[in-house]
Amino acid sequence: MRVMVMVKPYQSATAADRMPSAEAVAEMGKYNDELIAAGVMVDGGGLKPLSVAGARIRWSGRKAMVLDGPFTETKEVIGGYWIWQVADFAEAVAWARKAPMEDTELELRPFFEPEDFEGIATPELIAQEQGWREAQLAKAPKAGQG
Question: Which of 56, 74, 121, 123 has the fewest beta carbons under 10 Å from its own?
Answer without folding.
Answer: 123
